[in-house]
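ARCHIVE CARD
Drawer: 12
Card no.: 0347
Subject: one protein chain, sequence and derived structure
Cross-reference: see card 0346
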Amino acid sequence: MSLRVRRRVIRRKSNNHFIESAMVPTRDGINLATDIHRPIRDGKMVEEPLPVLLQRTPYDKNSSARLEEAAFFTNNGYVTVMQDCRGRYESEGGFSKYVDEGQDGYDTLEWLAEQAWCNGKIGTFGLSYAAHTQAALASLSPPGLAAMWLECGGFASAYHSGCRNGGAFELRQVTWAFREAMESPEVRANPDTTRAAMVRQNLHEWFARFPWKRGHSPLSWSPAYEDYLMEIWGHDTYDEYWQQVGLCAMAHYGTFADVPQVHQCSWYDPYAASTVNNYLALSEAKSSKISLVMGPWTHGGRSVTYSGNVDFGPLATLDNPREGSFNDQRLSFFDHWLKEQDSAWDSRSPVKLFVMGGGSGRRNPEGRLDHGGKWVEEAAWPPSRVKETSLYLNTGGKLSVAMPEAGISPSAYRFDPEHPVPTIGGNISSGLPIMEPGGFDQRESEEFFGCQPPYLPLASRPDVLVFQTDPLPEGLEVTGPVVVNLWVSSTAVDTDFTAKLIDVYPPSRDYPEGYALNLSDGVLRTKFRQSWSEPKLMGPGEVCPISIDLYPTSNLFAQGHRIRLDISSSNFPRLDVNGNTGENPALSPIRVTADNTVYHDRTRPSHVLLWMAAGDC
């Protein structure tokens, strides 16, 4: 398809390069605001064809962060293109999150490839939504695409992880929608009315009043964002909606571009599972060099050494003397694949991981736990040095490699949806002011939504089952996927089971009560235990096997620490709360209490599956 551009050439000079502004049309006639950053040589704009780097973003192509990125790559010999997604900032059309990005990205690359200043090689880069836009356009294998660096984004399947999770809905989509609605055209156009009304909304109060009604929610002043939220929350089965380009790369792996790629993310990021899953599938299916980089931070935190209230040491950032800054590493990647310059990218290990743990365990000057850690390079994920190991839930709250005995009584608790277990850290982005991401001691405090005095440990709640190992006689590394297999029953026709993997520190001078550090968590809505597309309710007293996929992780459990698994039925406000009726909690206000039971005897051996290796403490 040939596309013509409506160009308004501004050619303003900025940071030693020129910027041209253009409106690039898509196949349905919508024009996308696009800035073309072109290098200068000897005081004149370079006219010879060059490789192009593209970022498509809903977060303003003219923001300082994107202008700095554009200046860096342009001053290093690229034409750098920044584009506002449709319906955002200077682009036309209505914003429909995720689902327009494949075709819009394809049309943009088709146009770029036809330009005289493009040498036919186009790379893409960007963080978060700007990684989602990359995966979306790559699913259609557009012309000219030659390399990609996806940072903290790119859904393998938004239904399975990222928007929904084990059948539950990730409520960070709610806080994201409210924040971004503040920048929507209808809100910005009426600062004295619409925007003033939204500013008055208290999300803490609104989060206590789910489900929201269309037209009577804090998003009702921005109908497009309210429609987006109600639609995506309302789709609770895995159907064609969730398999669209932009929401589900795994449904399009066959046509996904076969080009060199870096998939980068972090252990406390909501896209950790998508990143690893995309790497595994694409590295097996494609012939191009595909790499995985996993750090210890929260969403986009590549240049900091901490996550939540936990610090990993001065070497925890991606910046390092051997490879240079993060920008230097991306430049080396694109120079190798787009300019055919020699570098270490051909010979480097495909997997680079940060193994958390092994620090002093003291409180550092910033008040964070010194958890420590180190970077390792591997040939595969999971690494060949770790072995699949089952730890079984045993009587007395024990977690052990020993199979449970016959006749052990099950463990039960009462799950009241009106009093859910509060979220304390975890894999969250865009959660403020409701949720705080990262690693924290699993103890209630006033800083976390839903916590109440006297702020006791979550393990003390009657609706949290705790299973833990004895203190470890030596260090033990866990690196890989985390899967919890349970045998369960409930008095309700549908309920949730949650699982959380925790590194338990022994008492110390800085932490007299120890420190229970969350590493990974997951959930399963039981009506989806057999099928994501055809839910099946449970019968009264029916004992069912279920599997809960937690986020992947890499952690060294030091000598004297314990490996702990917490089982419950809620994690709010990170996930929506199941009303135990079989209805979608986005649509039904009815909630009933459920008595939930976990079985862990010889014939029903509930266990957590970890990939383990002896660790060096």
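Annotation on reverse: The radius of gyration is 25 Å. The chain has ten helices and 28 strands.
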